Amino acid sequence: MSNRLPRSWRTIVIALISIGLVLLAAGGYLTPLTKIAFSPVIAAQTWLSDRYLAIQSLLNAPRDVTELMQRNAELESEVASLQSQVIELQQQLTEYQILSSLLDFARAYPEYEYVGASVIGRDPSPFLQYVIINRGSDDGLRRGMPVVTQNGLVGRISRVTAAAANVQLITDPAMKINVRLQPSRERAVLTGSITGDLVLDFIPQSATVNPGDLVLTSGFGGNYPPNILIGQVTGVRSQDFDLFQSGSVQPVVDFEQLEIVLVIANFQPIDIEPLLPTEYR
Description:
Blueprint: H1 7-26, H2 31-108, E1 114-122, E2 130-133, E3 146-148, E4 153-160, E5 165-169, E6 176-182, E7 187-191, E8 198-204, E9 214-217, E10 229-237, E11 244-251, E12 260-264
Antiparallel strand pairs: 1-2, 1-12, 2-5, 3-4, 3-12, 4-5, 6-7, 6-9, 7-8, 8-11, 9-10, 10-11
């Protein structure tokens, strides 16, 4: 009698074992064994995957670096272009604001005719206060015409060529302007200086002048129209034995930032020097 089971019994046994394993697996009883069995395989697969990704990254690195450098260059170019546009827009906005303010000034003094001009240069001498504008005799400019900005008085035309002109600033040492103080309405003489400071002279001792008082052209002397703002009094000096008081003035015009000015073209200065006594010439 043979010890071997008939083939049909072996098949049944194998089937029962298979069914049992399936049931055990479905019930989760074989999970720990599965983890232990497949743990080396999973570890080997992870190691191989990491090495593959590292090699792939190494092979692709030069191409990625080139692409990043190219993209970075494109972004830098875009940033530079945008910055240039921002600067241009800021300049246009500044010019618009200046022109708008100049228009307001012209509307406030409708009796005058104006010629707009751009400042294109400055006198290099530290002892002279001049700027050069891009309008000249071809534009109707003449020596002695007053020059203003939206803030107030700048100076007057001192020399003219066909296409350009020199503007003597009110801060020039040779400049002397008859002025009126507000609110006292007292008269004085404004002079420039080598340092560019403005000085008030010949203020009557009886006059009450305080810091903050306005300084305007008086129209006396015939060199400037009246009531153009020059600045504000910042200090007053008075001595009992002096005939006059003196003071210092802060101009309303920023002469370092002059860009666009207006020339009062229909104002004709009056030369009254021949009418003055000899001792006043």
